[in-house]
Design brief:
Length: 273
Amino acid sequence: MRRDRSTDRSRRAATARLAEPAVEQRDDGGSDGPAGSRLEVQSVRRAAQLLDALAADPGTATSALDLSRTTGLNRTVVHRLLRTLQADGLAVDAGNGRYRLGPKTVGLGMRYLDGLGIRSAALPYMISLNASLQSSPWIVTMAVRVGDYAVLVERLWKPEAPLESLMDIGTHMPLRTSAAGRCLLAYSGDDGVAEGSELAEQLEEVRASGGVEISSNELIPGMSAVAAAIVPRDAAVAAIIVSGIDLEPELSRDSDVAERLQRAAVGIAGVLR
């Protein structure tokens, strides 16, 4: 029986295409080379970059040009993605060609926290801790890890707390230079900290103390903090913090505030197990 040569060539070409490494298509029609073992959608990744850039300074509306410079994306691509994000409520036009995060991001963030169960588990302990601090001008907060930051997701305070000491929900604190951040980093399992470095020694002290860390003047001049890691199993899911002015007498891992924080953190972890 005679074989159709054109059919054979088509089959060989199809087989060759299947053997080639997957290539991602760029928005501008080009490609980014082999995608590796896991394919990613380039437009989604770029939209996420824009959301990260908008979230970096939520108090300031950002232009498409600045977003292009920050992300390294083509300005035309940035405009297209912003229009799509705006249509879905993930970004809003603040006027004069500037953009902010959209209202839909609030719901997404809250649903993520609800999925963790951390806020509902922690609130009773935070309320009790806040009440036990009596008339102190200190604030009780909680932070979770988001990338390289500890992000505030809950806060309680008393009328005695100065307004300038109140940190906004959503405040980003660097993991390596904040008490809450080092608590989270100490139990991350992938801290990437050089062995023998000053930070490595700090993290070891956090673990040795049962998850307690202290800081002074790291984020805001005049502000101090004591934090405790919430560790339901092997990794920290959050950190509970007492911060404010005039906290210096409590800046030790065996202080009264540190012990209260640690008990609260252990209690919250028990609920989450």
